[in-house]
Amino acid sequence: MKKGKNIKLATKLALAALVGVTSLSVYTVDAAGLTGSYVGIGKEPTSTDVLDKGTEVNTATDSIIDYRQTTNAQGAVFSRTPTNNNKNGEGVDGQSAGNKNDTNSTGNTAIGIGAYSARNYSTAIGTYAEAITGSTAVGSGAYAGDKSSSFGKNTYAKTNAVSLGNGARSSQGVAIGSGASAGLFYKYLQSDGSQNYNVINYSMAIGNDATAVGGIAIGANSSTSSVYGVALGQSAKVAYSGVALGTDANVKVSTGVALGTSSIADRRSNTIGYVPFADDGNGSYVPASAEALAGAISASDVSKDFATTYASQITKFNELNAAYYAAADEVDKQDEIIRNTKGSTIASEQEAYAAAVTAKAKAQADAVAATNALNAWTKANQDFTAALGQQRTELGVFKSTGGAVSVGATTYSSDGRVTSILTRQITSVAAGTTDTDAVNVAQLKRVANATISNITVGADKASTADGLAITSDADKTRIDIVGANDNITTSVDADKRLIQVGLSNTLDLSDAGSITFGENGTTLNNSGLTIGAPSGSKTSNIIIQSGNVNMGGNIIKNVGNGSVVEGSTDAVNGGQLYDVQKQINDIAGENGSLSQKANTNLDNLNEAGKKVITDAAQKAVTVKNGDNFIKVGLNEEQQKSGVNQYDVSLDKDALRDALGTGTNTAGDKNLITGDTLNQAINSVVTGQASDTHITNVAKENIKLADGNNTTVRTVSDVKDGAITYAVDVSDDAIKNAVKPELDQKANIDGSNLSTENINNWKNTLGVTNVNQSVTEVTNRVDSLETNVSNLNDSVSNLNGRVNSLNDRVDKVGAGAAALAGLHPLEFNPQDKFSAAASLGSYKGDSAAAIGAFYRPNADTMFSVASTLGDETMFNVGVSLKFGQKGDAIYRTGTTVDVSGLQNEVSDLKAQNKGLADTVAQQQTELEQQRALIQQLMAKVGM
């Protein structure tokens, strides 16, 4: 709201200046002899000179935009055509004749053919100019709405905006310059006369053809293609949230900065920088990935292992982000189509517009869904987000988080060759402090002075001890890095800048050499391997030497199964030994003795053992055939191997014959077979004349015959001995049977009720009273709703009037302050007219005022004053002076004419000068006479 008031104040100041300038050349009525003023208006434009609705807006055209016939927000025709279009070509006494302003508001001014002003204190000057809601539009085809100001042909300003210059357009912004544009605008003039596409606001474009989309563009042809960008300089261009300073400076990536003429910033964020001592083996000191960078700078394990630890989560996180950006890009794409097709009269573009509206709605829904999915996922994966934040923090020193700052440019040909390089020095740079500060040359020199600049690597230097030897020559002009013995190797690349110190694949530690890992740890020397026992262990060290292994009381675990065969030297494990022990226990006697077991030829059996075998043989099992259907036979194959095995079989046919065949009769207990059941079913079908006789249990067939009101008919032919019958019932017979009872019942629609029946029902149910009660309640509810509606309207009107009163009070206060600042000059009898202008402010509202003062004499003054713009205030006054002071000084007839006095003084001065000259001349003559007299006296001796 404050911004709008500031714009209005700027407009008022401009008008005040305009009035002030023109007032200097305005002839008074007395001077010019005129009794009024005139407004001259030229010929009305033809249709070929006008851009109407549905026409592509071209700010450079000679045609003007016509806002007269449009539609309102509901699509209904809303005429803004003034009465007779002011074709009379003149006004009377300063009032524009024929222009029909908004009759429901005040303080509007419209001058020009088709000019229109409405909604309180709006001013439209020029052919087809339009000003709405406290706005000012000056120029042919100019439009200003919602407290905006536009000056120039075909200018457009909407919602607290300012446009200045032919074709300048702004929406909630500022556009100054021919063709300047601040915001986004439709390609075609809309049916309601609007041009702005309400997506990007608060832009500023200053300069001919400058374009600002949500940013600031200052300079001819400068542009910001996205929000938050700043482009300063002729033809400067900038992407999202970037800064370009200088002619032709160009920022091609988001958040980039280009400083200087023709500078280009095209290096994106998240770019990994040079890391000293981080050679990847290919001569590059720029790590290829975030994880490689983390390893190069010795970051935490979280950062180094991030890609592997959170591999699946990284994939999901990237998928969710890709889904959101895809939907957002689709919204932008459809927005662009809508902006360039809405309002078109071309059929193909109308179809494209309808499709884009649908596609945009879907894309917006997809974007919301993607955002919700991403938020929910990140909330559920706090470990991932915490690790990601930690990695970004640790790598931020060597990995950019925004676009690069460029003070020059490198351009390339289509095949990738460098065509030009623009470089600049950055001077007067202070010494950097933190890791991300820039350093100056002085700091680098300090580092260079502390660096050994001449280092040679070679294998020709003698090695006197194990290790890395660094030696210098006699003059101490260089330092040599050599390997000791053959265990350490040194090498340098062809460019003499990469020194590699390595360990030989074959180590010779000599007889006295050894390798020890940790305190009391493992030691490897010429005599063998010693593995130290842990501190506090009950076991001793493990010693492995040639021909000797001492486990020191330690257990050997995880030993594989050795081969247990004659001649095997494999080690066996506890499991194998246990199996052997178990086999022995299974065959052993008391206390594990084997003396109680029989030999294979039974030659060690005693009498008791022989008796057991004999008894068993005497009690052999006898197997014989049973009934005719059970057979037992000796298995000849088994008998050949000394085993008497008998097979038992069943004769199914003999068993069936033994059971016999039963019949389907009562008391028969013989076996029932399928043939028995089939014969029983066939006998039933064959012996029956109808299917109503089911079994032989029924003594008689079921007979069907026609009865009263029913008939019996055959509905199918005989098939497999079955016949189907249907029984029909007469509808009329049923109706006649129940008619007496139905006549006593009321139809659901009451069609068979007489008037007497209805009245009886009403009396019984009390309907009359209910209707009256309902009617009374309905009337009261209607009355109550009417009262509430009237009360709501009254409250709404009151609120509106209070709000309007508050605004008007602020404006009145500002106007009063402005009027109070008008003061006349001192009285001058030779120039009795004076003028004054002033500004006033009250609670954020501002006002400008002008006034005129006329003093016919020293004792009387007439004054007239008025504010400009909204809430116009004016006053007319006369001031009188009482007493003798004024008359004494300026009384007619005795008034000293200053000019005359000045002339008299001048004359007196001239006379005095003449007298002075005469006196001087006389003095000269007297001196001459005195000299002559002295000469005469001298001659006569006096």
Automatic annotation (TrEMBL):
Protein name in UniProt: Adhesin YadA
Disordered: annotated segments: 75-105
Boundaries of every Trimeric autotransporter adhesin YadA-like C-terminal membrane anchor domain copy: 828-882
Keyword Membrane: yes
Family assignment from sequence similarity: Belongs to the autotransporter-2 (AT-2) (TC 1.B.40) family.
Keywords noted in UniProt: Cell outer membrane, Coiled coil, Membrane, Protein transport, Signal, Transmembrane, Transmembrane beta strand, Transport
Gene Ontology BP term (one): protein transport
Ranges where the Trimeric autotransporter adhesin YadA-like stalk domain occurs: 425-465, 556-599
GO CC annotation, single: cell surface
Superkingdom classification of source: Bacteria
Intracellular or extracellular location(s): Cell outer membrane; Cell surface
Signal peptide location: 1-28
Pfam families according to UniProt: YadA_anchor, YadA_stalk
Annotated Polar residues bias: 75-88, 96-105
Coiled-coil regions listed in the entry: 774-808, 898-939
